[in-house]
């Protein structure tokens, strides 16, 4: 996949561009039952649940790669104003969305 710039800023210094439209990348992930049991036990004693932290980190990377592919499919050179949104589905699934504005350099 071609690397295109993905930035959280509104402007790309030194670039003039036209807006192509909204792009997004989505993923929903879950851990297996054994990991969920381990997480439940950790919830009792407190502290970071590393399996879930890793799952969310992986989900963010997947969402960004899907956002990039969506932008490439639109003919974009970059994505500006990228943001993340996430939420739980039930008790053991997590959904992550990366979204932004695809732009084409002039």
TrEMBL record:
It holds the Pfam family YbjQ_1. InterPro entries: UPF0145_dom_sf (IPR035439), UPF0145_YbjQ-like (IPR002765). Gene3D superfamilies: Hypothetical protein apc22750. Chain B. Belongs to the UPF0145 family. This is UPF0145 protein.
């Amino acid at each position: 996949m071609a690397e295109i710039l993905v930035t959280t800023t509104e402007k790309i210094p030194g670039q003039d561009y036209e807006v192509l439209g909204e792009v997004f990348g989505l993923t929903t992930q879950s851990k297996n039952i054994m990991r969920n049991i381990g997480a439940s036990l950790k919830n009792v004693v407190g502290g970071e649940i590393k399996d879930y932290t890793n799952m969310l980190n992986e989900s963010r990377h997947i969402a960004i790669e899907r956002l990039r592919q969506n932008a490439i499919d639109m003919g974009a050179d970059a994505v500006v104003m990228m943001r993340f949104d996430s939420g739980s589905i039930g008790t053991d699934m997590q959904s992550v969305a990366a979204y932004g504005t695809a732009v084409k350099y002039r």
